[in-house]
Design goal:
CATH topology: TIM Barrel
Largest sheet: 6 strands, mixed
Oligomer: single chain
Helix content: 25-40%
Strand order of the largest sheet: 2-3-4-5-6-7
Order of helices and strands: EHEHEEHHEHEHEEHEHHH
């Protein structure tokens, strides 16, 4: 079975950039459009991973092979921010995750207690801001799975994530991170032989998942951002006045491309060389305990 484990809909809310956050959404894709697109592109199971939201579930609850997930925005002890993919949860668990997302130890304990499958996403990207050396110690010690293929991250960022997962024997997971329908299903996770959601997730936990699809790049990201801009102007006609700013998108993406490449290269060299900073070794290679969080 195939499943794109990282997809955003209109329920992901607004972007976090100053000024633009007042009218520019993370995605303009309706849940039912995403469902139809992913099914058409060969996905057997469908999920949404909106930012801190399960709002899309109401539209898809009765659809075959849909299950509820979300991407939790979490504050690390270092003060940095990460995104945690949490899969096959219910409404009550969503509420509890929201209450714990600014306390990483409490969040991890709850995820473990509830036996939820979770991943740490795009760890070699500056998407959520700066990274601290101690963050990787947490990733190595307490996260059972790592997003090792993200359809919008640069190939180098994905290679570093895959190497991190391989070296520390973490469960690799993959998804498109699509904010526009054009990219939905461009990266996904496949569990051969699985016949339903339960077998898919069990196989994923057991390490039988295979990552398929493509990484991101300059042209792909530029295309999707321009599509989002067009969707914004179609939704709110007055934003057509921002068209001159939209013309700057290719240049902005080029600058972001350079920043992302530098970020992935710098942290990949530090972390996958075996240390997370001067004199600070990562935990030894071991099979992770999927359900247990050490105090």
């Amino acid at each position: 079975m195939k499943c794109d484990l990282h997809v955003h809909s209109v329920h992901s809310g607004t972007i976090t950039l100053p000024v633009l956050k007042h009218f520019f959404l993370e995605s303009y894709s309706a849940p039912q459009e995403i469902y139809r697109t992913l099914r058409r592109r060969g996905m057997d199971l469908i999920t949404l991973t909106d930012h801190d939201s399960i709002g899309g579930a109401e539209e898809l609850r009765g659809f075959p092979n849909f299950f509820l997930s979300e991407e939790v925005t979490c504050r690390m002890p270092s003060g940095t921010e990460i995104h945690v993919g949490v899969y096959d949860l219910n409404e009550r668990q969503h509420v509890q995750l929201g209450r714990r997302r600014n306390d990483l130890a409490c969040l991890l304990a709850y995820l473990s207690e509830q036996r939820l499958f979770f991943t740490v996403n795009h760890i070699f990207s500056s998407l959520t801001g700066r990274r601290a050396a101690e963050d990787f110690v947490w990733f190595a010690g307490y996260f059972p799975a790592v997003e090792a293929l993200n359809g919008h991250m640069l190939p180098e960022a994905n290679r570093n994530a895959a190497e991190f997962a391989r070296r520390l024997e973490k469960i690799p997971a993959g998804g498109s991170d699509a904010h526009a329908l054009t990219s939905a299903g461009s990266a996904y996770t496949e569990v051969p032989g699985a016949r339903n959601k339960e077998e898919f997730l069990a196989g994923l936990r057991a390490g039988y998942g295979h990552l398929r699809g493509e990484s991101g790049g300059y042209w792909k990201l530029t295309r999707d951002i321009l599509i989002l801009c067009c969707e914004m102007m179609r939704k709110d006609r007055w934003t057509i006045l921002l068209a001159p700013i939209v013309s700057l998108v290719p240049a902005a993406v080029a600058i972001n491309h350079l920043i992302e490449a530098s970020f992935a290269r710098r942290w990949g060299a530090r972390v996958n060389a075996g240390t997370s900073g001067p004199g600070r070794a990562l935990p030894p290679r071991r099979k992770p305990e999927v359900w247990e969080v050490q105090p």
